[in-house]
Amino acid sequence: MKKFIHLSEETGFNKLEEVIHLSPKVNSIKADKMMKLKDEVEANIKKWGWAQ
Amino acid sequence: MEHHYPVLYQGEIKHQYWFVSAGKKNIIKCVEFQPLVGPSFNLCLLDYMPEKNELSDQAISNNGDVKMVLWTVAYCVEHFLNQNANRIIIFSGNSEGRNKLYMRYIHRYRSKIFLHYSVRIEVKSEVDVVFYIQKKLTL
After folding, report:
1. pLDDT tens string B8-65
2. Exposure letters B121-132 (e unless 16+ CB within 10 A, then b)
C-alpha cells in the first residue's frame, strides 16, 4: 500500500474519499457471527427494557 | 474525549466512519454500524485491503497505535449514538485477548462511560463475549 505518513489531514481525507468511491465490499466474519445471535440480542434488549 | 484520529463520516447509505491508522504504517480503517435487529446495530472495525478492494475484519495489523484506534472507535460510537439516540450498539472481540482489552478499557474509563451510557457485557466464555451499549436518555 502506498504510504502517506506525514500527509496532512486534508490529503488523508482525499485518499479516504478515493477509497470510498471504489465502494469496497465488506467481508466480515464477525458480522456473520452476530447475525446468528439476532434472536438472542432481540430477547436481551427486550428483557432489559432497552427496546423502547 | 481523548485524542483520536480525524474521521470521515459517510452516513448517506451506510453508517461508515473512515480514518487512517498512522502507526508503524498507514492503514485505512472503517467503522461500520450494520443494522442487526430492531434498534440494534453491529459495530464492525474493518481494515481496507487494497489488493482485493475489500473491507475485512480478519487482518491483524499490530500497528502500534491500539489506544488511538480505540479512542477513534469510541468517538464513532459517541457520534452515532448522538445522531441516533435510541439505537443500541452490539460488538464482540474476535479473540479472548481482544475481549479482555475492551473490558479493561471500559473498566478504566467507567466513570466517564457510565455517566452517559448503559453498558451490558454478556460473558458466555472467555472467547465468546458480547458487549451492548446504549445512550442514557436524558429527561
Report:
1. 998 877 899 999 999 999 999 999 999 999 999 999 999 999 999 999 998 888 899 9
2. eeeeeeeebbbb
Query: In this complex, which of A9, A50, A52 lies closest to B6 when CB atoms are compared?
Result: A9
- Comparing CB atoms, the residue among A24, A31, A41 nearest residue B44 is A31
Give helix B96-108 / helix B66-83 axis angle, nearest 10°: 70
CB contact under 8 A, A26 and B86: no
Question: Shortest Cα distance from B122 to chain A (angstroms)?
Answer: 10
Closest-CA residue of B relative to A33 is: B92
pLDDT at residue A41 tops 90 = yes
Instruction: Calculate how close chain B gets to A18, using CA atoms only, in Å.
Output: 11
- The answer to whether the CB atoms of A41 and B40 lie below 8 A apart is yes
* Paired strand residues for B120: B132
Q: Report all structural domains of chain B as residue ranges with CATH numbers, in order of start.
A: 8-135 (3.40.630)
